[in-house]
Structures are given as C-alpha cells and as structure tokens.
Amino acid sequence: MNITLRQLRAFYEVAKTQSFTLAASNMKLTQSAVSMLVRQLEAEYGLALFNRVQRSAQLTEVGRQMLPITERMLEDLRQVHEGAADLKALRRGTLRIAVPQMLACSWLPPLAAEFMAAFPDIGLHVMDTTGDRIVSAVQDNEAEIGIGPQRPAPAEIAAEPLWEEPIQVALPRNSPLGDADCLTWKDLRGENWIQYSDDFTLYLERTIWAKLPIPDARTTNVRYLTTALSFVGLGLGVTAAPQYARSFADQFAVRFARIEAGRIMRAFYIYSRKNHSRSPAANAFISFLNNKIGNSS
Q: Per its UniProt entry, which superkingdom is the organism in (predicted)?
C-alpha cells in the first residue's frame, strides 16, 4: 500500500466540504487533481469512499468510518511537523551530555546555567562518569556528546579540541614536602600515588614514571578523582589532577602544587558520533562552548 499525505488531505477536504470544487480551492489545486487523488486513495483501499451525487460528494459508509482515522493521522503528522520546527528553533529538545564527575560539578554548572537561561525550553541530561568512560558513553549512545580529556577514540567517534588544562599535583596539607608552590617529579618519587584513571596512569608510566620508577607497593587505585582527593586529604598519598580541581582544595583538605619541570598539559575534547547528525540542542551547546572558551582565551 502506497498512500500519500496529499491523498489523505484530499479525502479529508472533500469529506468536510462535500465538494470537490471547494476542496480544490482549499488545497490550491485543480478540481481534476483533487478528484484524481481521491480516486488513487480509493484504489489503494480497494473501496469507494464517496458517492458522487450531481455536484456533491457524500461519504459512503466506509468513508464515514475512515474519516476519524484520517483526521487522527493528519493531526499526528501536524504535530510531528510542529515538533520538528520546535526542535529546530530550540523551543524543545534535550541535551544529552557525558562529562567526568569532577568536571560535572565544577566547570559545567555555571555554563549549564547560562545556556539554560538562553534556551529555557531545552532539557538537560548529564551523565557524570569517569574520564575513561566518556568515549564509550557516546559510542553506546548513552549521551549524544561527551566532553572530557583526550582519550583513544574508535574510527566512528569524532574528537574536536576544546581547551588544554595544566596537570598539577594534589598533596596532603601536612605533606613533608612543605608549602612549595612548585615541585619536580623527582620530589614526588617516594610518594604513594593515588591512581584514578587507567588511561592517564598509562600516560604517566610512559612519560614520567619510566624515568622515575614507582614501586607497585606505592600505588593505590580508585575509580573517581573525588575519591582520590579524599585519600590525599587523609594523608594516604598524592595524585595528579587537572587545574580545575583546585576549587575543591578546601573541601578535601588538600593543596595543589605546580610541576616546575616536565609540565603536563591535558587536552579536553568534544566527542560525538561520526556520520550522525547532531541535534539542534547539541549544536547550540557546542557553539556556546566555543564562544565562551574563545572569549576567555
């Protein structure tokens, strides 16, 4: 069965006006065109919808039963059209985003508040997770876009750079290393390292720790940066964290120190699926982020 919207609309207009002439005027078509559309629909159904009586068109019993069904179909299609227009105009929609937990509770909230004030009809769904899970969350469609540190991405995931963040060391406030604002990796050789990211740990192992081996007995593994900072605050070790984590120094009773030599910069990216059209809400948020980051750089 190959029924078209124009055929349904022709049937509806003729049924309401009981006239092919008036229906043609409403549809801005010729009478013969409307008559052809109705005949095509009747052929598809294999049933007569109208009794042609002189110049009027009266519904058959089948036509009377089909009219309310057709009205519902046309109304559903109208709502689909309006819904698409609203999505395009950002009058509805949902932004689904995956963000590392610490970023989600420090960097994201003020930006989300400003974005939602500009687009109050857009809903927000935040998947706060580990940095190692951002790419897979996008790949598995748990989120439309992800924002997080650089990670290996499969071929079907696009990565667009956003900004770079210096990595600093979080230490207990009573650390024997004192109150120095700058340290070297060598200064930290004897510390117990609290590890929270498999990917970042591998990066440190390949770059820094290869030169300054750290025994396995001097490492502790957790899942979240917040947990790592809690361990550091209790004097159980040190950890490496992005600079934005400094805002939680008082909460976790830690202090942050810069690395004087061998400074590490971590790139942060927007991740999305290739060959998938992004929603208007996602495109608007990405444009908003790029403008904010561009203005602050």
A: Bacteria
Q: What is the pLDDT along the chain (297 residues), one digit of tens a residue?
A: 689 999 999 999 999 999 999 999 999 999 999 999 999 999 999 999 999 887 789 999 999 999 999 999 888 888 777 777 766 667 778 899 999 998 999 899 999 999 999 999 889 999 999 988 999 999 999 999 999 998 889 999 999 999 998 889 999 999 888 777 888 888 887 888 898 887 777 777 777 766 666 655 578 899 889 999 999 999 999 998 888 899 999 999 999 998 877 778 889 999 999 988 889 999 999 999 999 887 665
**Which pair of structure tokens corresponds to residue 102?**
């610490």
Enclosing domain of residue 57: 5-88
Max CA distance (Å), the chain: 103
How many residues in the chain?
297
pTM of structure: 0.68
Residue 255 and residue 181 share a domain:
yes
Based on the fold, state whether residues 129 and 107 are members of the same structural domain. Answer: yes
- Say how many domains are in the chain: 3
Q: What is the CATH number of the domain that holds 201?
A: 3.40.190.10
- On whether both 179 and 249 belong to a single domain, the answer is yes
Q: Which single residue is written with the structure tokens 């024997």?
A: 176
- Report how far apart, in Å, the C-alpha atoms of 215 and of each of 8, 177, 209 are: 75, 20, 10
